[in-house]
Amino acid sequence: MHVFVTGGTGLIGTAVVAELLAHDHTVSVLARSESSAAAIRAAGAEPVPGDLADLAALRAAASRAGGVIHLAFANDFSSPEALAAAVAEESAALAALGEELVGSDRPLVTVSGTPWIAGRVATEEDPLPLDGPVGGRGRSVMAALGLAQRGVRSSAIRLPRTVHRDGAGGFAGLLTTIARQSGVSGYAGDGTQRWPAVHALDAAVLFRLALEGAAAGSAWHAVADEGDAVRDIAAVIGRRLGLPVESVPPETYGPLGPIFAADQPASGAHTQAALGWTPIHPSLLEDLELIES
């Protein structure tokens, strides 16, 4: 299959592109710059000039593809306004991709976060949050899954708070970055809140499996670790960086503060059983041991 990928040069996207190529798919990747295009060519894929705001480029690339994997997001958490703009941009892009595939029965695999459910581990049966800092992403993903009624084999991979590789990535990566800047390896509240995680290489396999065979309108959890306590994550970061480990106000994390403070374990058991997905790469706490001081 020829697959068009957005966000194919990031931590997750590079793993997804490599996984697709290793399984005899051909791949085209949205490229915002010549340096990105060069990296895409070096990986063995075809660059498609444009960015997430270029809806014409997205539609044209989707029209030529046998399937689409959407991963791109601006990841600007500097302010509530910047985050809202990033969510709006992604929503428009995903809508454009979906409309291009209507009536074709081609796959569209998109991405969201795992939901958080008070008092228990979230499963694939639970709905996405449709309000809060990233509620707009949940609404756009639900709209994409609704395209199953219009001849699109749409599915969603729900990613945990940390997708990691070589000690970097996700919320744990943000904790590391903030620790380097502040001189404290911090966590919100008492640190007992749990975050799920997955290695990027394991997540990439799940994206491929969904592309190749997931049912229309289905949602899956790319979860290997159901939930590590955030203070345990901060403890490894602090030890690796030689920094004190302390509780800090949720406001330290800007508009993501409420999410950083929330207990949000999630399970991937149904996904593993139904799609035959078996995570094999290091856990988050193991991977964080690769952080360089």
Describe this structure in words.
- With about 290 residues, this protein is an alpha/beta fold.
- The chain folds into 2 domains: about 1-160 and about 200-225, NAD(P)-binding Rossmann-like Domain (Rossmann fold); about 165-195 and about 225-290, UDP-galactose 4-epimerase, domain 1.
- It is built from 11 helices and 12 strands.
- It has helices at about 10-20, 35-45, 55-65, 80-100, 135-145, 170-180, 200-215, 230-240, 255-260, 270-275, 285, and strands at about 1-5, 25-30, 45-50, 65-70, 105-115, 155-160, 160-165, 185-190, 195-200, 220, 225-230, 245-250.
- A 7-stranded parallel sheet has the order 3-2-1-4-5-6-10, sandwiched between helices. A 3-stranded mixed sheet has the order 7-9-11.
- Helix 4 (about 80-100) links the parallel strand 4 (about 65-70) and strand 5.
- Helix 1 packs across helix 7, helix 4 (about 80-100) runs parallel beside helix 5 (about 135-145) and helix 6 packs across helix 8 (about 230-240).
- The chain is globular.
- The mean pLDDT is about 95.
Features:
NAD(P)-bd_dom_sf; seven-stranded parallel sheet; NAD(P)-dependent_oxidoreduct; alpha/beta; UDP-galactose 4-epimerase, domain 1; 2 domains; 41% helix; 11 helices; Epimerase_deHydtase; Rossmann fold; 293 residues
